[in-house]
């Protein structure tokens, strides 16, 4: 190539080292080059952690613009800083052989603080922060930004700091690795950490051919898997995601990925080993595994950030249920009622009971807390709800008849039940529907409070689009702490009847399942 290759780079000391390394390799092959330093936003804004800036590609965007404007021919980056999707017209043209992949802990005096309850660790990385807190939950993390030299200086000047975390590659390349430092081999690095990448215009075929000469294939394979994993999890530098991939002597791809909650309390890991050549689906498999284990919930919580809750569930939702929500839903959930089984006397079940009513799974749990299944001599069992029926038949005995709603069950019993007496195992907050209908039809109802329902709602800040209710008790509990605003999304007609006393708009799920209430919410946002 006869023309001079203009190498774009950030102007920090480390970025210049990386650019000069690329320059050296290109000139060794006989190509003429010149360095073009350009200052980026990431270098200018040093008072906030990267994840608070809310920008991906904060260190690369300025160089991308310079390339598209024709100011530079190629750009040199730390690959871990590059967004997984490059701007249109720009491609990854080469990756140099990878350096140290590890994070390095630099400490002041000694390592005794690692076993102490209280310690202060400095880092501007959300990934490092989350992993450290996962391992040392009582420690305090403080923000740290700037170039390598300034961060080392800040560590030295802050008397209450015990240590700071750096990329080992950066310290080593600048020959700044202190004696009082250790590699954190347990900490999963950022995807592509330790690798230097060169971008070029897709249309610059001659430049791309030259860069192929300095590309390191093994590093390219491994970092591509790590970055695809990151991309599939929809994360960038603002997500606590780690990934490392290497090829062993047996020519096997070894991959390990991790996703954490921002506070480190939740961690999902995946490990995969496959033969080289059969590795093309590794990133997809591992990302799907993480997502299936609750990763989507963690990512959604992070990407929602400061968005205000618009849907509140009066029952704690599972990860799978949360994953079903429409993208516009910012949901919060809590068990607004707490259940405590009552202590029941043996005299209640001393003789066979001809007719029994069980309206909830809580009743089943309470009965089996007090008695064994063998002791429960129930001739005819009547249930409300399909799930309750299944649970009764699995753990107590055959169900005579069930209906989805209390009113329908009571009417059925009036017409078809043998005898004129029934034992109703219920809660202290049961509705009057069943006792009223049966009593009006001369059926004696013996009520036994099998469990106590305690109203335990929380105060929800801000205006809600809607509230998800699963029983009349959840309606009552929610309204002890909150006003009736928005739509009441109800699991069934009995719950809806209670909600209609307070809410202007009430919608009822087609099937009395939590998942059906979620679908009801989603219909509102479509």
Automatic annotation (TrEMBL):
Keywords: Porphyrin biosynthesis, Transferase
GO biological process: heme biosynthetic process
A Pfam entry, by short name: Porphobil_deam
Domain Tetrapyrrole biosynthesis uroporphyrinogen III synthase: 349-518
Pathway(s) this gene product operates in, as recorded in its UniProt entry: Porphyrin-containing compound metabolism; protoporphyrin-IX biosynthesis; coproporphyrinogen-III from 5-aminolevulinate: step 2/4
Enzyme Commission numbers on file: 2.5.1.61
Gene3D superfamilies cross-referenced by the UniProt entry: 3.40.50.10090, Periplasmic binding protein-like II, Porphobilinogen deaminase, C-terminal domain
InterPro entries for this protein: 4pyrrol_syn_uPrphyn_synt_sf, 4pyrrol_synth_uPrphyn_synth, HemC, Porphobilin_deaminase_cofac_BS, Porphobilin_deaminase_N, Porphobilinogen_deaminase_C, Porphobilinogen_deaminase_C_sf
Substrates-to-products reaction catalysed: 4 porphobilinogen + H2O = hydroxymethylbilane + 4 NH4(+)
SUPFAM superfamilies given in the database record: HemD-like (SSF69618), Periplasmic binding protein-like II (SSF53850), Porphobilinogen deaminase (hydroxymethylbilane synthase), C-terminal domain (SSF54782)
Assembly with partners or alone: Monomer.
Similarity field: Belongs to the HMBS family.
UniProt-recorded name of the protein: Hydroxymethylbilane synthase
Organism: Winogradskyella thalassocola
Lineage, broadest ranks: Bacteria, Pseudomonadati, Bacteroidota, Flavobacteriia, Flavobacteriales
